[in-house]
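Following up on my earlier message about iron/sulfur cluster. Here are the inputs again, as you asked, copied directly from the submission form:
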Amino acid sequence: MSLTRQAVGEVYRLPFPELIYRAATVHREHHNPLQVQMCQLENIKSGRCPEDCKYCPQSAHYDTGAEEYGLETVEEVAAAAREAREGGASRFCLGAAWRGPRQDGDFDRVLEMVRTIRSLGMEACVTLGLLDQEQADRLAEAGLTAYNHNLDTSPEFYGNIITTRQFEDRLRTIEAVRRAGITVCSGGIIGMGESQEDRIGLLHALASLDPPPESVPINLLVAVKGTPLEHAEPVDPLELLRCIATARILMPVSRVRLSAGRQGMSRELQAFCFLAGANSIFTGDKLLTTPNPGSGDRELLAALGMEGEEKVATG
Ligand code: SAM
Ligand code: DTB
Ligand code: SF4
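Thanks, got it. Here's what our run produced:
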């Protein structure tokens, strides 16, 4: 039976204690609640992106001062992955400020980066924009664990945020990734001025993917100066918790990643997110272009009696 948006709304709007209790229960049934997956991001190509995503510091449409550089070398990526592994990360994620990869030497180099990360015993994830089937198949062949491609927001609100690619294009990329046998990492951003109904619509779209994504990143907007969303109203933390708890209930076996926006979030709010079902974070002191808590994470997890996941898992 297909999931209705109304049913998602009913979960999302449960009385708060009921929502959190249900999410924590589902979490314990399917995961070790003491463990958090640690993923490390590497921006392998920065800035000058032709797309107009209104949240993004790397879009060439806005003047944000974000760093600009061309594709990194395989050696640079290998060194960064080794360092991340020493820091406790089990997954290494490569991001490129591209509309999508071209079939040229750059794409071959990314395939080599994937092989290198896998040879270090880490999971490899990449986020390169729109993909066709052939590209997805080649990434699978190189041993890619996961492909990140976010739906970002509800289908209705989407056009307010991005005009250079459609919501349906994203679904097509996710389908190609699925068909290639790569696990799907897909989530969205909250705090872009969307309504609660849009957040419910995003969760509905994600949970309706068949099967749902193995990883679901929930990003809190990092409002960057120079982007059109620079002055976006900060989102109520209770809404973030409702999103995480609803994602956990709707997608019980998926990893729910507390993604961008942890810098400046209190330790208490992050702890509450883990109770609500989040079980993955980005480690390190930088996301793609913006700051991340870095070494503070070790202290936070220790204070909570929690730990980074050691084993290399599949989701
Ligand atoms: N260019 C590729 C693409 O857009 O598919 C991959 C990189 S892109 C930076 C990956 C994701 O990062 C976006 O889909 C968006 O969800 C997230 N993101 C980008 N800027 C953000 C910001 N300022 N705050 C929160 N999340 C952000
Ligand atoms: C995802 O959902 N969030 C990450 C990752 N996937 C690629 C990116 C967050 C970017 C935040 C803004 C920046 O640092 O540029
Ligand atoms: Fe480019 Fe990705 Fe940023 Fe959009 S989110 S502007 S596609 S780097």
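One observation from looking it over: The radius of gyration is 18 Å. Hope that helps, and feel free to reply on this thread.
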